[in-house]
Amino acid sequence: MSDLKITNLAPIVLFVYNRLNHTIKTVEALKKNTLAKESDLIIYSDYPKNTNSKQSVDEVREFIKYVDGFKSVEIVYRKVNFGVDRSIVDGVSDVIEKYRRVIVLEDDLITSTDFIDYMNRALEYYFNNERVFSITGVNFPIDIPDSYTEDVYLGCRCASWSWATWYNRWEKFDPEINDTVYREFITNKDSVSRFNLGGDDMSDTLTARVKGRIMTWDILWCFAHFRNNAYCLYPIESKISNIGLDGSGEHCTKKSLKFYTGASNNSIIFPKKINVNDQIVSNLKKLHEYSFLSRIKKVIKNIVRY
């Protein structure tokens, strides 16, 4: 592990809603981190979106009132329902304005005991390398070439299953993409092709977000990476295990199981110079490629101008 000294730990922002069991497991795992007692934890609790979810939201709120094991614990109770996407964007913006860097988790992520250490060291190490726009603790089950010997790699797709960033990167994030910017992008085949190095679905998801068919913040975060010729830093061995692939999450369902990976504790050495590995980019893209049936549906939609 690097002997890099961290003098200013980033706050950890945890977003919770109505999954008590998931939240308990997430918090308990985080408390086992070696740097938990030195870290500030800020919990955002969203308001119930309907009467059916009120009881489960209240149960989560009752639990988080007594969370300890950290340097400090601050709880932000939403007074209206923000929804996961608005809540994350708003919460991260508020915290990063004050602390200038942030580590972000949702309520279904089990961390390794060195997760906080890894994220803070990466934030410190790559602060001046603006090709690194964000850091994640997760790695997806892709093949890593035998010739690749580094402990981390650069990916064209940012990851929402745990991430961290700095103020000077986050300020380039546009939560409501400008229509002119989108039109210039979507009509440029080369730009679309380069954006889709992160996965076949990237440009389609961006279009769906722009047209209001979906509300997901992370595709706009990916677009900010792309527009700034920047990348997400991934660990070779994941430090996150997602327990929300049981259908309980808003965006993660059982269909997401192909992305599942376990968490591990391992020493990370950050390379001074890190380049994009084309084979890793290709393998990560394949994980997000369309099935044959999906490709046929896309062609039909285009024909009928859907």
Indicate the low-confidence ranges by residue numbers. Answer: 251-260, 295-300, 302-306
In total, the number of domains comes to 1
The ordered string of helix (H) and strand (E) elements is: EHEHEHEEHEEEHHHHHEEHH
**How many strand units?**
10
CATH C-level category: Alpha Beta
Largest sheet: 8 strands, mixed
In CATH terms, the superfamily is: Spore Coat Polysaccharide Biosynthesis Protein SpsA, Chain A
Shape: globular
CATH topology: Spore Coat Polysaccharide Biosynthesis Protein SpsA, Chain A
CATH architecture name: Alpha-Beta Complex
Overall mean pLDDT: 89
Structural class: alpha/beta
Please estimate the helix content.
25-40%
Structure, described:
The chain is an alpha/beta fold. It has a single domain (12-299), classed as Spore Coat Polysaccharide Biosynthesis Protein SpsA, Chain A (Alpha-Beta Complex). The protein has helices spanning 20-31, 54-64, 84-99, 115-125, 167-170, 179-186, 189-195, 202-210, 218-227, 278-287, 292-303, and strands at residues 12-16, 40-45, 72-77, 101-106, 109-111, 132-136, 152-155, 163-166, 231-235, 240-242. The strands form two sheets. It has an eight-stranded mixed beta sheet, sandwiched between helices. It has a two-stranded antiparallel sheet with strand order 5-10. Helix 1 links the parallel strand 1 (12-16) and strand 2 (40-45). The longest helix has 16 residues, at 84-99. The N and C termini lie far apart (52 Å). The relative contact order is 0.16.
